[in-house]
Design a protein that fits this description.
With about 500 residues, the protein is mainly α. It is built from 20 helices and 4 strands. A two-stranded antiparallel sheet has the order 1-2.
Length: about 500
């Protein structure tokens, strides 16, 4: 995974040596905590832990209490919890608490970067940026921030010109990490690896905390709280003690909702081809990043990075396949080229090919996506009746899958019927018949899925679905009074209003 990549020497033309100290101090905290987990005795473990805390107190605590007292509380509580973990020999728990400390220091550093930019203070900017550099090696990548920092070093009066660029690019990292960690958790659970899934959900939650204030600013408190809640729920799922399969199903549902909220935060499409292209783009960026660390000279040098490359590539190709017709409608040539590039990337990855070739193909794919995104304009109207039609179809497929013995598929179909379709019917139906809206919601979201998971007989499941279908027919007669539900499809770079009640759709509906 990215956060366990080898740390690199700073590029001094970007980060002056005098200001690289905090990045080193962050690294020392992480190293001391890892040594504590691996120490041969409790005394040695606690000695390393005490060293880590002293580095935090000396270098980061004042900034935390100044700008985000909650971060200081999280870190101090984690140090206390790690003490208990080490004394009790709970090393896995200690490593999870280490993630809280590690990621929370990133938030403190970002807040100090924001403050330095506001105060036009280049020395403080470089000092705190060194933490972000130590973790993410920005100077080695094609970030506009690198040029911005050079300009600021040459003339501090340039700070207002480049302030937004620096903040937005750093936040883009945390946005991507929020999605990435959930997907990695799902991949770990696919293998039955609950411990790694727990680690990934912890990382995702505490990466998201850095992004959270920006989400509040763009989407408002309600939407931001929903996103924070979803990330917290992911941690609860992996701590629940349920089977890996049950955890995976729940995390996939959470991951879908998180990605929709992130797309809304970006100001991009939350349905249709544009939404699919955003998902493909993010995952291909991760493929290039992860694979460059995973393979060298035709051999795997980091199995974890390689496994994650495969997860992200497979998901990108899956999204493309599921939305092929929508994407091809925009441009057959670009769609065909994108598909061909991804097939070539897969061949290279499967055969441990040169990472540079993968990076080139990812670049070509991103060009295809940019062209396709420019074509994704216009407006589509989706009526409540169309959603009800789709729910009816999915529920009938649920019955068929469950009766054939495929309870996993049945659960997925039932979830899709509710999460991706009924949520759009709730608002207009609730205005006209709130009791019916709540009854259908409970019957679909809770009772039906519980029946499938608990192994009720096919006859009982059929009877329950038939009851829902009768209620849906009643709803069908009511909701036409509300007319069409309009979803605006965004042209790249233009933010428009999504005229639906906060909920978002991400599957193709009947025309």
């Amino acid at each position: 995974m990215l956060c366990f990549a080898l740390f690199t020497v700073f590029t001094f033309s970007v980060i002056p040596f005098a200001f690289a100290d905090l990045g080193d101090k962050w690294n020392e905290i992480k190293s001391s905590l890892q040594k504590a987990e691996n120490a041969g005795s409790a005394a040695n473990a606690l000695s390393h832990l005490d060293m880590a805390r002293q580095i935090y107190v000396t270098n980061f605590k004042q900034a935390a209490t100044e700008l985000d007292f909650e971060s200081d509380q999280l870190i101090e509580t984690s140090f206390s919890d790690i003490t208990d973990n080490l004394e009790e020999g709970k090393i896995v728990e200690a490593s999870l608490n280490r993630q809280i400390i590690d990621k929370t220091i990133y938030k403190i550093s970002f807040l100090k970067i924001e403050q330095a930019l506001e105060n036009h203070d280049p020395e403080q900017l470089m000092k705190w940026f060194s933490v972000i550099e130590a973790k993410f090696s920005i100077s080695e990548k094609d970030f506009a921030t690198n040029n911005a920092l050079k300009k600021i070093q040459a003339d501090s009066e340039e700070i207002p010109e480049y302030s937004d660029i620096i903040k937005e690019e750093i936040l883009s990292i945390f946005k991507l990490k929020t999605i990435e960690e959930l997907e990695e958790a799902v991949g770990a659970l696919e293998k039955g690896d609950v411990n790694n899934a727990r680690k990934f959900t912890y990382e995702g939650l505490y990466y998201y905390r850095t992004l959270h204030p920006s989400v509040i600013e763009k989407l408002g408190q309600e939407e931001a709280s929903e996103l924070l809640h979803e990330m917290e729920e992911a941690v609860k799922v992996t701590n629940s003690g349920s089977s890996a399969q049950v955890m995976k199903q729940k995390l996939e549902e959470i991951s879908s909702e998180v990605e929709l909220l992130i797309r809304e935060y970006e100001g991009g499409e939350t349905s249709g081809a544009g939404f699919a292209l955003s998902g493909i783009k993010d995952r291909l960026n991760l493929v290039a990043e992860e694979y460059s660390e995973a393979v060298s000279d035709g051999a795997i040098v980091d199995q974890e990075e390689y496994d994650e490359t495969v997860i992200f590539l497979n998901k990108a190709m899956e999204i493309f396949s599921e939305n092929h017709s929508l994407i091809s409608e925009l441009s057959t040539s670009d769609a065909d080229s994108l598909e061909k590039n991804m097939d070539e990337i897969k061949s290279l990855v499967d055969n441990l090919g040169n990472p540079n070739q993968v990076t080139i193909l990812v670049g070509k794919s991103l060009n295809n996506i940019a062209s396709l995104e420019e074509l994704a304009g216009g407006t589509e109207e989706i009526t409540a009746i169309q959603y009800i039609d789709n729910i009816t179809k999915l529920l009938k497929e649920t019955k068929s899958a469950y009766r054939s013995g495929d309870s996993e598929k049945a659960f997925e179909l039932a979830t899709e019927a509710y999460l991706d379709n009924y949520e759009f019917v709730e608002a207009p139906l609730g205005e006209l018949d709130n009791e019916l809206m709540l009854k259908i919601e409970n019957d679909m979201r809770v009772t039906l899925r519980d029946m499938i998971q608990s192994g009720e007989s096919p006859d009982e499941v059929d009877a329950h679905i038939n009851m829902i279908l009768v209620d849906l027919e009643t709803a069908r007669k009511i909701v036409p009074e509300f007319g069409p539900i309009v979803i605006s499809i965004l042209v790249i770079g233009i933010i428009t209003t999504i005229i639906v009640t906060r909920k978002r759709n991400f599957i193709q509906l009947p025309a």
